[in-house]
Structure formats: structure tokens, C-alpha cells
Amino acid sequence: MNSISRVAGPVVEATGLPGVRLFDVVRIGGQRLTGEVIRLDGDSCVAQVFEDTTGLRVGDPAEPTGGPLTVELGPGLLGSIVDGMGRPLDVLAGVPGAASGHSAAVPWQTADPYVPRGADPPRLDRDRRWRFTPAVEIGDVVEPGDVLGTTPEGPIEHRVLVPDGVSGPVSAIGAGEFTVTDEVVRVGDRPVTMAQRWPVRQARPVRGRRPLTRPLVTGQRVLDVLFPVARGGAAIIPGGFGTGKTVTETSLAKYAEADVVVYVGCGERGNELTEVLQEFPELVDPRTGAPLMQRTVLVANTSNMPVAAREASVYTGITIAEYYRDQGYHVALMADSTSRWGEALREVSSRLEEIPAEDGYPAYLATRLAGFYERAGEVECRCGAAGEAGTARIGSVTIVGAVSPAGGDFSEPITQNSLRLAGCFWALDTSLARRRHFPSVNWTRSYSQYPVVGWFDQHVAADWGDLRRWALALLAQEASLQEVVQLLGVEALAPEQRVVLRTGRLLREDFLQQSAFDEVDASCPPAKQIAMLRAIHHVHRALTDALERGVPARQLSELPALAELGRMKAWPADDMAHRCAELTERITQEVQAL
Amino acid sequence: MTTASLYRIGNTDVSRIAGPLVVVEAAEALAYGDLVDVLSGQGPPRRGQVLEAAAGRAVVQVFGGTSGLGRTDTTVLSRGRSAHTGVGRDYLGRILDGAGRPRDGGPEPLADEERDVNGLPLNPMVRDHPDEFIETGISAIDGLNTLVRGQKLPIFSGYGLPANELAARIATQARVRVPGGNDQDRTEDNFVVVFAAMGVTRREAEFFQSRFLAGDAARRTVVLLNLADDPTIERILTPRVALTLAEYFAFDLGLHVLTVLTDVTAYAEALREIAAAREEMPGRRGYPGYMYTDLASLFERAGRVRGRPGSLTQLMILSMPDDDITHPVPDLTGYITEGQIVLSRELDRAGIDPPIDVLPSLSRLMNSGIGAGRTREDHRGLADQLYACYARGKEVRRLLSIVGESALPAEDRRYLALADAFEREFVGQAGERRSLEQTLDAGWRLLTDFPDGELKRLKPEFIARYRKGGSTP
Predict the structure, then answer these.
(1) Predicted interface score ipTM higher than 0.85
(2) What residues of B are in contact with residue A110 (Cβ under 8 Å)?
(3) What is the per-residue pLDDT across B15-44, written as a single tens digit (0 to 9) for each?
(4) Which fold has domain A460-593?
């Protein structure tokens, strides 16, 4: 008999499931809770269950499904919110379409506020009809990854791809409106629908990987200028609580120049996802004019949802991201927070009584993290002979993972293992956050290894790289001078060092600090970023010149006009060059008058 | 409730009793999470819960303590379901024990229905984002770390610091302002307090009862008490029963509920005790690896639900052992909650009341609750400016001990003076209750001596409109 033999939290042991494979999905108990096989031992198998196991007893049934955990891919994902297993949360609440704004009136009073157990609704809306425009003709020979046709989905054109394992001549084509389960094209004798399934733990194949030389412009000055992330790269944001990880992640989700954003709320606060759900439909993507929600997919496993589904949520998110990448789009995936996923691994591992490695995390932690971060990349999308090399679709997945280190201490395993994998380290700093210096990215600890500064030189301003180097050097110099000041006071410094202190303060307060809540300053286009930096650089030169003429450093650093640089943030981007030139000219004159 | 007919199954084959755990053999019928009654030859029946159900044996944690239990005369009776509590309006005004039974000598309250104390996760789709400003009358909170309805905000305290006084003040002074109007919505009819004490001393319990159950307030308060010398493991149930009641009041009856949980550190110790008894792999400082998940399953039960009028706001008090904010309990709590109010021993010694250290304090939901139409248009900028000035002033203060005041530039001296005045006049307010306008005005007064150019976080028009007195060009 196939039945449960042991229940301990999210881990359930069952016997009598011959033929079951590792990572196969099993249905547990009378409510048919979803679980995933994580160990096979003789006649028994151990599953982690993605739902609360309270009430399960020995002898309850367990049933194999014969396949691994998959996510259903197709039009309708954009603008939706799903849980870790990919179940649509609006459908679970009894208010289908509420997330995407697709259905008209929402009777919230009748909604079920709680996530029920054992529910297994269809992932994509079965009734919604999509206009399908074919891109192939009868007789065309297609291979996996080729575009069969398109349908408009929010701000993008959703490309219906030949699924894995299907190839041959196109034998029938539909045109018109279809649901996701209707046949739209027949390849050989295989019907193809708009909805496809893909196992979440398996990376989707690509034709080839491309070098990472273009930045993902984020609109955040400290990130774009000092520590830029490449399109297709990976960045991590570690920081203690209250340092602004989530605010940074949502700012990126709002303003990063991506076609599609997948936001994975992994073991974090429910209210934060609600904020995204309520705010994003109101915000307009300046690049497409469509509401931001329409380019966003939310994957929600809040901290009170079952712990095992935390791992599934990360994989569900990255699989959805890869799916849009394969259509030729640039996707940004925000994972907040990867530490909760690691802790879920630790909890399940400890219930399995595995030998722990560092801090109780399982020894395979690094392998799992690598398997996730390595799914980032800019790729030539998979396609058949139709796509000649060089003309193939290009897509990318950029991963930005938040890390919540215990006690804010970066030496813990998740931060350290993620550092090995990500090319960008955006270290958030508790002491900066306490001074309300946001984003609290520490400029001496953070780094970027991506060679993308050249792109800014070519496409934004030729002096981008030079100014960046200058700013980094000056900030480093200021940091070491601050240490002297802490010991001896500012009077111990040489005059030119006092000017460095003053400019350092200008850089910190008037350039690096950026308010995520200010209408104008929340996002800063690259041209405005460099104009602001250039202005500060001009002023620094004027101060240094005046010093050489013998003006006392104290008089220079207390010059009231310097405060006006703080107003640059509020200026509109299109008027920037003109106003900056005017301001620097005025300050230079005042400095020269001293 | 305790008639034998309710029990489904009895198990008598106890093989092991260790710490809070009882292992029962041949217990196939016990389900994971089942509430059980443990009957012994001696003493009253105790409650327990199934922690592990395996072929042939089950592990049961006993809430009432295991002392006096014997292997041969102990019977474990299952109620065939997980721990439940009655919920209903009749619970208001009552004092219950840590497991939800009457402690005030009164009869069992009339329950409208029975609910699973573990609750179910709120669907984020159905949550409503909290944005209703709660005026607590305390400047450091209203001005700089604004609380909103549906928020979960802990008070990080240390032993000997007045966290209880602060929590009681918030609970008794809190008002909600009607947007756009000057009148205060007193909300006495639809405002209730659920107070759950875990491992507090008798003295603390009496303090809270005298504040919460005095006069009219008693009608709208439920008190659950698990005292320091009550069975430790019962603390696992206390917040769950409290939150189940609170959810019923908020989302079924449409009331605005403030839940005060104290002390989270004592609760975490009960978790650790069970983990140790089960010989689980200990995490930091011996706390179990799943403590984050466990605490989240409590704290996430705050919020608002779309289409329903009520709200569930949580205020938790936790003691930081040795005032260490990186201790696992405050650390994990800070990752779950929507900010934190941190009390400072240094301010307390200086006689600042309440001794709130605003720099490490934070309210994550502040932004949605303030600004034009909610509080005042200058609120965000003023708060940011006060933070920035105070942080700089504290840095100057550190420098002062090295170089002496005479060596400080005039600018630095201004920040130093602000830091002192900020602590004395803005944070410190003793028993006074300040309206939001009084709080904001107190903030503006501190900025009187600053040149406009230094006030980078404030829009020039707000400086012109709200700063009275000596502004320098």
C-alpha cells in the first residue's frame, strides 16, 4: 500500500511508491497536498511538502504523479501573481483576474482572505481568448524554439515557440482568437497550444551565450555610475534589516530598463507584495506607456507560507524569466530574499538529519545557489535552422538577489557563496541606513566586475569612465581622511585634504543619496546622472584652484553656495545640462571672488 | 470542554518522557499537529500537541510540563484535530490563561465558533496595504516612525527599560485621524486590545492589567497571561490563541484590533527548549533553524483585508539580552516586522522619557501613512531632515570628546546643539500627549537656527510655510 509512514513538519515519508523518481511530485493525504520527492531509501521515499501538513496521519494515502514540478508557461503570466508552486493567487482568493485588472468588477467582500490547502486550479486562465497571428506557413519545417506566431500581451508581443521535443513541417495553422489550450498550429501530427509546461529545476536550453558588455540601466546613481550590473549578469544585495534591500529591489523592478520583470517575494512580508500589487498598476512604464504591472510577474511565498515552497518559488520565478528570455526579451529577476530560500534548505535538511556544513546549512548549499545564479545570462535564443547565427533573437535574464545575513554579518555562508557567483556586490550598510543615507550601498565594500563602463562612455558621455574613476578615488580618500578626523579632529588636516572632505560630502549627499520616494529623484536617467557628477567635479576643481591662490580651506568648505548643488536632484532630466552649467558657473564665480 | 466523550483515541503505551516531550508507541492514529490531553495518575490533565507522527510512535510536546508523569499510568488522548480556541465577542473583558482558558474565575466565555489557533496564511492578493495613520501622541513615533493600522511594529527593549510603559501608552492613547478633517475619530466603539503576556512576571502582569482593565477600557480588552512561573511550553499556544481571537475581531467583526505581545524573547526560549529536547541541530545561540518561519507565522497575522472594515495591528515587546541588537531574537524579528522602535539605555539614564533611539528605529509603512491628505505635506521632508541633522549631531558629539568644543567649526556646533535639544525636547516628552501638529511644530523649532541651504531634505516652500521665527537666508 502506498501510504504515509512519518510526518515531521514539512517532511513526509511514504512507502509503497515503486517507480517514483527523485524530484517527482507526489500528492499527499486526503487533501492531495503537493510534495516533491527529495530522498529515496529502499521502499520508502521522503518528500518535502509545499503546504501545511497539520492533520496528516500515518496511513494516509500518498500518490505519485509521474513527473517533476513544472510551471505552465504561456500568455497571461504578465500582470499576474502566483504562489511558489505557480498557482494563481487571484484565483485561489476567488477573485480571478484581479491582479492583472483583466476582470471588470472585483467583489472583494466575497474573497477568501486565506490560502486554502490542497487547491490545484489551472495555472493560466482557461477562458481568456488571445488573438493569435501566425508567423509560419504550411510546409515550413520548424524546430524547438522557432516562433510559430504571436499574440499581444500587455506591452509586449508574446511569441509562441515550438515546444521542446516537437519538430517537423507545419501541417495546420489557426488564425483568430484562441484560449491557451486550443490548438493554434500543428507540427507534423503534433498539436501545439499557446500553453506549455517546463520543469522548474531544469534550465531552459539556449543556442549560445554572449559576453556581458551592456549594462542593465537601473536609474539608481550609485549603481549605474559606481557599480553597474551587466544585462544578463547577477548582482547580490546583502544587508541587515532596515538597510533598504526591499526598497532597492522594488526601485529596480520599477525603473530598470527591462522588458519583463519577475519579482520573487521569497519568505518576506505579505504587505510588501500587496504594496507592489497596488502600486504597480498605477505606475506607468515611461518606455512603453503601459502600466508597470503589465510587464511584471509576481511570485509570492510570504514568510508565513509553507517553508518548502520557498525553494520552489525561486525556481518557478527563474523558469518564467527564461521563458520570456527565449522569446527575445530582456528580463530582470528580483529575488527577495535568497536567504529565506537557504534557510528553507537548512530546515528540510535538518529534518532529514543530514550532516550539516557551515552554520547548519547543508553541504549542497553552494551547488544549489550556483544552479540558480548560473541561469542568468545574455543568450542567443534557441531556434532551428531558420535563425542563422548572428541574426538569432537575443534575450537576457539579469538576477538581482537580496541576501539577509544573520546579524548583518556578511561572513555567513549565503552571502559568501553568493559572492562567488555574482559579478556585482551591492553591500548595504547599517550605519549608512541609520544616518538615512539611502540607497545605503557602501562604496568602499561594493564592487562590479562587469566590463560595461565602456558602453556608457560610448552611448552616454565620453567622460563617464573618467568621472567614475575620479569619484571612486575621491570617496576612498575621503573615507581614510574621516578616520584621521575621528582621531585628531578636522584641524589636523592639510588644507587640500579639507577640500577633499568637502567634496566627499557633496558626492555623498548630493549625488549618491537618492530618495526612492521622491517623484523626480526616484529614477535618474544616465544623462542626468553624469551631468550631476560633472557639476560636482567642476566645483571641486574650482575649490582646488582657489586653495592654490591662498584662500583658506575653512572659508571654502563653508561657502553657502555649495549647498545649492543639493537642488540638482529635483531638476527635470531634459533641462539638466543647461541648469548644471549655469549653477557650476555661478559657484565658480563665487569661489573666484573669494 | 473536557468531557471524555470528545476524545477519539486513547494511547497508553508511553515509552519515553524527557523534558517537555512524551513519546507514545503504537500511536498510528495521532495526526501531525493534533491537540492531545495527557492524563496522569497524579494531578490534573495537561494539554499537548503532536510534533511528529511516525509509523509506530508519536512525539508529543506537553504544554503543562511533564513533572509527575509516569510511564505506566500516562494516557494520551487525542481530540482528533489541531489546537482550537473559541472566538467571540464574549471574550472581551476576560482574563485567560496562556492556553485560552478563563483565569479570572469566570465561566467559559460563549464562543461564536471554534477556530484553529494556527490560522492560515493571508493571501497577499487580498491584503489591503495599510495606510491609515495612527496618532500615538508620542513624537518619536508619530513624527519619525509613524505607525499605521495593520502594521506589525516591535519595541526592542533591554531589561530594565520602560518598554511596558511605552506599549501601554500607545495602547491607551492611540487615535485614528479622519483624513482631511480636524476632528479626531475617537474609535472607542470599534477599537479593542488583545494583550498576550508570555513569561512575564507577576509585577509586569499587574502593571498591564491596571492599565488595560481599568474602568471602561476593560470592556474592550482581552488579556491572556502566561506568567514567568507558568508552564513554559504553554507559551507556544499563547500568541496563537491571542491572534486567532484578534483575527476574528478584526476580519469577522470589523473591529480595529491592537495586539500587544510580550515578551517575544521568552516565547523564543520556549521554542528553543522544545528543539533541544528533540535533539535538533541548534542554530545561532541554540535557537532552532526554523525560528524565522515560526515567528513569521505569528507576526504575519497582522494586516488589513480588502473589502473588510477591520484591522489587526501588532505591537510586540522583546528584550534584547545584553542590549545586543544582533541577538537572534531581535535580528529575526527585525527581518519579519515592518520596522522597529529601539529603546536606548543611554537615553534612559539621561532621563529622556520615552528613551527612544530614533536612529536604529524605523517604520517601513510610514510612507504610505503620511503626507498631504493623511498627516501633513511637510511630514516626510521634516522627518528626513531631523534624522540627517540628528545623525550628524551625534557624530559631532563623538568628535567633541577628542577635540573639545572650542575647536569645532560654527556649523558643527549648530548640529551639536540640535542633537541635545532633539533628545531633550523632541524625543523627551514625559507624560505629555502631543498631537501630530505639536510634534511637527516641535520638529520645526529645532531647525530655527539652520540656514536654508543646509536643509536639503526640505522643499523651500515648506521651509517658508512651516518654519516660524529666525530663519536665516
Answers:
(1) yes
(2) 307
(3) 899 889 999 988 888 899 999 989 888 778
(4) 1.10.1140
